[in-house]
Amino acid sequence: MNSSDSANALHPLVTLLGLLRKARLLRDPVPLTFLLVNETRQLSPYRQAALWRSSGPGQGYVETLSGLALPDRQAPYLLWLSSLLAALPAMDLPGSLQLQRPPLSTENATSPALPERCLADLLPAHLAEEWSNWLPDYALWLPMYHLEPDPHSRKPLGGLLLARDWPWSSAERQLLEELVAGMALIWQPLLQQRSLFSRWNERLFEQSWSNGRLLRLAALLLALAALTLPVRQSALAPAVVVAAQPVLVRSPLAGVIDRFHVAPNALVSEGQLLFSLEDTQLRNQLETAKNELEVAAADYRQAVQKATREPQKMVQTTVQEKRWEQKKADVDYLSERLSRVDVRAIRAGVAIFSDSNDWIGRPVKVGERVLLLADPKQVELEIHLPVADAITLEPGAEVALFLNIHPEAPLPARLEYASYQAEVTAESILAYRLKARFTDLLHAPRIGLAGSARIYHQSVSLFTLLTRRPLAFARRWLGV
């Protein structure tokens, strides 16, 4: 045998050792599975490869496919291949198993080229018939087993399926069996990697005493001690500055708003005209009533003159007098209603309402709120605390308002009111409504400013503060 023949004979062994050496350097099972299905072709060429991971007798799933980074679990090919491979680990084969596509006719069934086992002997007919749709004519199954002290009690770890258009020789099968056996020894411990707790336990308690170990142990003790430190519990919620005890200006009549005489957020004095209602209909009714009153008065005077000449007509005089009084009452009623068309301020303050164009021409009912009159010096803080962030609230709790216009200077306040029942806000958030009074009235913000309010509660441990949200989420997720 010359040197060229020796090199050719040793080349498969060198490739086998190279693949095993490359696999031993890996520390994660995912790269190992990709190496097994994609780089094994250096040892023996094939068209398709699939790695099966067993999870019990007749159970498991396809871990990796050659040429694919992430296989689709619901793909028809993968579903059929899973049904095929589920039956192979249960056979407890001592070595590899070569399979051939079921013969298309009875003439091919007696062909001497048939391998050891035909697929039709292993699977139901409806699965075996689809072989030609997914795989080439020949396939090689290489089982993998857990490393057990007793070889008779070994458990299937999985297996490698290779497929191509021609059968494998005995030399190729022997090399592939050695490769898969070595890969199984590497793959099994990677699948059984130790937990984070085990690694920390080894570093802290199983290594020899050294400065590094003492430093890690001290850091762990300091971290545990820090969890017991008292910290002030608080909650952050959106807030807005609103008027305290404002005067509601309502519509005195049912009608249509004609015009506003003040601008939104304008300072008004007591008695100043705010808005007017449409008065055309009332004025027409009043003119009609006045005309009817004049007619009733003339009829009454005429009846009195007739009664002086004919005493028997005194009854008619009484009827006309009552009619005149009724018309006079109608005029007084309409005059009083017309005097209420113009709405005036009952006290000085800021007129708070939306854009006047939104109100002009809008019909209103009796008693419907149109605007607010607020004292700019009497303000309070309205907070909407979401239910998910709710904490224990007590009257007098400290509140800090961080305005959006200058969040660097928080304004102090004290909690005065907290609703017992949560309400849905304009942002469709279920929240509790809170109210707080500013402690510094000389520097109180103006009405309408918005920001974020932080409500403070009693001190709790750092561990309680950090785990409150995760525990609340777990409770909602578990339904307890």
Give a short synopsis of this structure.
This protein is an alpha+beta fold and 480 residues long.
Explain what you see.
The protein has 480 residues and is an alpha+beta fold. The protein has four domains: 3-191, Beta-Lactamase (2-Layer Sandwich); 196-226, no CATH class; 237-244 and 376-478, Elongation Factor Tu (Ef-tu), domain 3, CATH 2.40.30; 247-371, no CATH class. Helices cover 37% and strands 27% of the residues. The chain contains twelve helices and 21 strands. The protein has helices at residues 3-24, 29-38, 76-87, 106-109, 125-128, 131-134, 170-191, 196-206, 211-226, 280-309, 314-339, 462-478; strands spanning 48-56, 59-65, 97-100, 117-118, 138-145, 156-164, 230-243, 247-250, 255-260, 266-268, 273-277, 342-344, 349-352, 363-364, 369-374, 379-386, 398-403, 411-418, 423-424, 430-438, 450-461. The strands form four sheets. It has a six-stranded mixed sheet, sandwiched between helices. Helix 4 (106-109) links the parallel strand 3 and strand 4. Helix 1 runs parallel beside helix 7. The two termini are 78 Å apart. Residues 105-115 have low confidence and may be disordered.
CATH domain topology of the largest domain: Beta-Lactamase
- Looking at this structure, what is the CATH superfamily of the largest domain? GAF domain
Radius of gyration: 46 Å
Overall spatial form: elongated
- Bin the helical content: 25-40%
What's the architecture of the largest domain, going by CATH?
2-Layer Sandwich
Strand elements, count:
21
Query: Strand order within the widest sheet?
Result: 2-1-6-5-3-4
Give the end-to-end Cα distance, rounded to a whole number of Å: 78 Å
- What structural class results from the helix and strand content? alpha+beta
Profile the largest sheet.
6 strands, mixed
* Number of domain units: 4
> Looking at the chains present, what oligomeric state does this protein adopt?
single chain
Strand content: 25-35%
Query: What is the residue-averaged pLDDT?
Result: 80
Low-confidence stretches: 105-115
